[in-house]
Amino acid sequence: MKEIKIELKYDMAEMLVQLIQQYLNYDYTEAQDKLVMAALAGFKLSLMKKLLQPKPKFKITLDATTAIALQIFYDDFIDEFTSSVGNRLHQISNQVKQTF
């Protein structure tokens, strides 16, 4: 499967890490939700590593699993594009839908 390349500003990456962490704190019962959160936990860790080396922008390559997990995260959990992080997730979700 294809990979997706995205770009995140430093502050957006920080906000995304915090948002994912909020959702990781919940106790999920559905297998699909657990799978999405497992993929997002790995993505969060890679973002946290990138944040250790501050840059204005990060170029990130998403494998298919992470990309689809971010799409499901937006569609099923966030689905709100008026905040800056919600808007960026909406853009990523649309990019994933076009790619896969």
List keywords for this structure.
alpha+beta; globular; 2 strands; two-stranded antiparallel ribbon
Structure write-up:
The chain is α+β, with helices and mostly antiparallel strands and 100 residues long. Helix content is 67%, strand content 12%. It contains four helices and two strands, in the order βααβαα. The protein has a two-stranded antiparallel ribbon with strand order 1-2. It is globular and about 35 Å long.
What's the alpha carbon Rg, rounded to whole Å? 13 Å
Q: What structural class do helix, strand and pairing data support?
A: alpha+beta
For the largest beta-sheet, the strand count, sense and barrel status come to:
2 strands, antiparallel
| Count of helix runs | 4
**Oligomeric assembly:** single chain
Task: Give the CA-based shape.
Answer: globular
How far apart the termini lie comes to: 8 Å
Low-confidence region ranges: none
Order of SSEs: EHHEHH
Assign a percent range to the helix content.
55-70%
